[in-house]
Design goal:
The chain is mostly helical and 536 residues long. Helix content is 67%, strand content 2%.
Amino acid sequence: MTLAAQAAEPVHAAAPAASLVQSVDWLAVAPPVVAAVAALLVLVADLFVREGRKHLLGLGAVAGLVVSLAALLPLRGATRKTFCLVTDTTVCSYTVDRFALVVQALVLAGALVAALLSLTLTKDDEDLPAGEYWFLLLSSAAGAALLPAARDLATLVVALEVASLPAFALVGLRRGDRRSSEAALKFFLSSVTATAVLLLGVSFVYAATGSLHLTEIATRLDNVPAQLDTLAQAGVALTLVGFAFKTAAAPFHFWVPDTYVGAPLPVAAYLSVTGKAVGFSGLVLVTVVAFPSYADVWGPALAVLAALTMTVGNVAALRQSAARARGAVRLLAWSSVGQAGYLLVPIAAAAYTSDVQIGSTVAYALMYAVVNLGAFAVAALVSRTRPGGRLTDYRGLYARSPLAALALAFFLLCLAGLPPGIIGLAAKVTVFASAVDAGLAWLAVVMAVNVVIALAYYLRWTALLFRPAPPEAPEKASAPEEASAPEKASAPQEARARRALPAPLGTAIVLTLVAAVTLSGAPQLILDVLTGSLFQ
């Protein structure tokens, strides 16, 4: 070869370098990007808005979430991908398919309802810094919207932490509240442990496969060398344990009751729906998309977790005392643990059949999100006049506020799966059918028993709403440590609490009630997600 040819060869080899510059599909990434931009704008605006006009930050946050939801509309139809490998454009880090679109709509709508509940809270509670609150809520929502579209383990872990880290601060943001700080610490320590286990599992999977992309991992796990098979199995198991923490599956659920009780009510509502959706969407992606070759490992494990989770959650909820301070939120917390067990059933069933079963989990999550947010909205209304949060505070609610009592009764019946809550019944039937179709008859029996257990505490709470109210008595904490700053309301705070129903809180109750009634009248709006694979 001549010197001239040798000199020219590097120039020729460098020519394809331009292909390394990836084009970004901004329309596909618009929902999480809009939420992230809104968070930054709120944070900057907080520096210039006067103290008396901080409520405008909340309106800006609500507007940002509405725009994020609207950005989902152009994404209906064909699957969109971006951030793909230059050597193989079918392997991408971000994919908007049916699964991602439905979960993004769920988490952003959940964040929007939580934001509506928060408008009154941030205005009335002087111990909550409004600017930081709205920035953290929007930041967490951006991470939650990113996660269901993530298709590589690195993006998945980053999205999970972006959704989780602001939530720690939201739980403990109220100044001077010991219970809030304790709840945030428990939440933080459990989540850090989960993240450490998850990262260890991810590193093992990467060492065994040499790839972080979920579809590539699925292909390479089919042909893992014998000497790396144990490493791959350990990676799969540790990854499942990490997500089990995030989804509050037993025995990794211990942080849930205290966190929900210590957090402001809108934050507890946000965690119960959006936080749970994030954990379950990540679990679905790693099991069904990345680890189908190891279904014999994660299928039985998730089936056992599902049975244990629903049993622990429902039995603990059944044992809640009606006179215990903040017993209503604690019952909803244990109920959410039990509901997590139901959500795990179709994922476990997918190990024995196909990913079509995942539609049952998504349908159940949509039903649960609507009615649970509605229940928290009514709880926020009751807490304005009865800050103790006891179940006995709901006695006679129908006489005081008929519409609120009827709404809460309907939400509870949906959670129980009883008519007229048809959507709750339909969602439970689809989950039950997924277990039967997969040959998991024992799991279906465990679920049936737990549904009966859950009927007891849901109906007990519903009955309280229509009983005659007891004579008025001054609020007393059951123990010195159960009295906190928010419950010892000053006279001006009590006066504000007894004003007419605030418009944002009323809007949240009406929106969730209309959605629940509509879905009960036309359950096919949710059950349509069961048809076909969600990953196409």
